[in-house]
Amino acid sequence: MVYCHSKFIEGFVENVATVRTRGLIKGLGRRPVVQGALSSVAAGHIGAVRVTTRWQSTNAAVAADAWAGRKPVIVAFWHNRLMLMPYCWPSTAPFHMLISSHPDGRLIARTVAYFGIDAIAGSSRRGGSEALRALVRKLQRGESVGITPDGPRGPRMHAGDGAIALARLSGAPILPAAAAVSRRVVLNTWDRLIVALPFGRGATIWGEPIRVPRDATPEDMARYRQQLEDELIRVTAEADRSVGAEPIAPATAAEHARYRNRHAAA
Question: How far apart, in Å, do the first and last CA atoms of the chain sit?
């Protein structure tokens, strides 16, 4: 029965990624009733993957205080791992994720809510300043947050300044994190969004904390941004290789330009 579920999910997401029905799907996906149904199915699928996957974790000790609710952190991970994030937070301690307010983002927010993860709507393009202030307030209350440095529109696996600014304003350390699975479908989206499949191997890997001083200069901020990008690329590739999956490479300038042109024409 679970095998049939796995094959159905695999076929479904592959077809959604290739057929030319995106306008219809987007229209339906904006309806609250449809979003509620889809998020329920997605959450059930994530739960099935969690219990049927053989998980291993590396350097998880750096997150122990955050999981225990003792010290808040900023968990940074690439946008294509959004649906894998519940596997990185095995804790009941409050956790808030910055997620786009677009329909796709609202669907993800409703899905991760099943796992006790709260969403803060916003992005670097829309509502970014307000969302940043909301994240700072959560951290000051001792609650951890998550952010995708390449979201919401890329380029894939190129870090922006948001996580670094948040660390400087809040004083909380950034923890680079990655999750990977051996059985997966990689969608044809700008970020190469990963949908995990059951009955495989999984890995979560945590990088070393990055602390940004409050008096950091613009030159310092640029250096920390590059440090975060490099560390995220490293732990993500290591996670993929540890389960036998092909690492996903950062977007080239030409690839990102092609995506933007297709998106503008859609």
Answer: 38
